[in-house]
């Protein structure tokens, strides 16, 4: 059985508390690249239930779902640069595809 780590009090540091809870609950693991999180089956089940409830509420209010692209061109991202200050150092960048250099950089969307 896995030994639980100390959980930071929520009032002390909310972000650390959240990370402690989801790690101790075996809901996630870190992927091999910075910022990549692997959502384990239990957390995906929780998310699936949240999504189902949200979808029902959206339908009641006649709100449509939308999927956004994963890759955002640099030119479009620059229009929103004021909103990206906190994300900028960690944005994953795509500069070539299939060995061919792209005319414009693309960034992986900073939020899901």
Automatic annotation (TrEMBL):
Q: Which organism is it from?
A: Metamycoplasma arthritidis
Q: Which molecular function terms from Gene Ontology are attached?
A: ATP binding; proline-tRNA ligase activity
GO cellular component terms, semicolon-separated: aminoacyl-tRNA synthetase multienzyme complex; cytoplasm
UniProt-recorded name of the protein: Prolyl-tRNA synthetase
Biological process (GO) annotations held by this record are: prolyl-tRNA aminoacylation
Establish whether keyword Aminoacyl-tRNA synthetase is in the entry. Answer: yes
Asked if the Swiss-Prot or TrEMBL record annotates the protein with the keyword Ligase, the reply is yes
Q: Keywords in UniProt for this one?
A: Aminoacyl-tRNA synthetase, Ligase
């Amino acid at each position: 059985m896995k030994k639980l780590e100390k959980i930071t009090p929520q009032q002390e540091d909310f972000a650390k508390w959240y990370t402690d809870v989801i790690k101790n609950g075996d809901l996630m693991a870190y992927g091999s690249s910075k910022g990549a999180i692997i959502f384990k089956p239990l957390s995906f089940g929780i998310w699936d239930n949240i999504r189902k409830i949200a979808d029902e509420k959206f339908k009641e209010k006649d709100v449509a779902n939308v999927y956004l692209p994963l890759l955002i061109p640099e030119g479009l991202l620059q229009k929103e640069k004021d909103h990206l200050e906190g994300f900028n150092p960690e944005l994953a960048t795509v500069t070539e595809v299939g060995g061919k250099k792209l005319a414009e950089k693309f960034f992986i969307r900073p939020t899901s």
